[in-house]
Predict the 3D structure of the following.
Amino acid sequence: MATAADHYGDHDALYLDSKTELTDLGLTLVPLAGEAVLYVPLPAPNECERQRRLKRRRERWAEMTDQERQEDQQIRDEANWKRANDRAKVNTRRYVTANRLNLMFVLTRSGGEGLHGPEGRARMMSLTSELVERLRGTAWNGHAAGDAIPAWWGAELHPGDKGGGSSEVCPDPVGCGCGGHGWHVNLFLRGPWVPQAVVKRMWHDVDHQGNGHQVKYRDWTKGNGQEEKPYATRLRDGARYATKYATKDWSPEQIPMGAHRYEVSQGFLPERITVSCGSLEEAQAILRSISGVANLEPAWRSEDLADWEGPDCVGYEWSPSEDPEP
């Protein structure tokens, strides 16, 4: 079942229901990612209303005990952290789809020398950044040395022994929580083909002190019946896979203040366009023009999402060209 986490961040402040007079609609589009959201913007509270809310908040806070304040702040912090995680998932999906990042490389530093805790995560992300820079500076398969390349990468705690006689043990299973060889990184690049041997050699070069480096590879547009799906859907599957397993490790304990949940190559963020529409018909005409689909049906509605907490809205998805624009 789809959840709010799959789409949170697709809107800022939205409201759309059968009682609303459809005369002032907002439409947010990310054309290269093949996504759009239709909504009715909520008016921002005026200064008097803002002051009233602030006063009520202060009065409620003053009536609380220290324990109640601590619990209230914890609830607010957890909710804000979850929203930030969900926004990161949406932005990842859009970045991966817009840049056609079909290849996933799983970078592991094993051999009993895994990296653990927040410092280990930061180190793995830094090593991957260096790897991407080396790939950018190397000529391979039509890629000219020095040309920028789109890439997305995020760290995930590797689970412990999955069978097969693995003896990898986390040196601090309570403090780290990985139960295995620490952090590994999922790196997404654009095909049609990036030599796995080149990635593996460079992964070893950037961290020559580690032993047992492993690089696993998957093309999300091929195999397991993927060819039967629209191309953009295959890319979204890959992005959702990466964030599904990484999200469990996006905790304040593992990602300290100022650290990023993921990293991307700069210069490749998909353009986001917001337009105001005077009617539903005008919005649908814009959708048809951008998507090239005559009768574009909603891909999801907030009312169908089990844990949706915000106002109602409607989302659309389509499959853009397989070849990204320069």
Q: What stands out?
A: The radius of gyration is 23 Å.
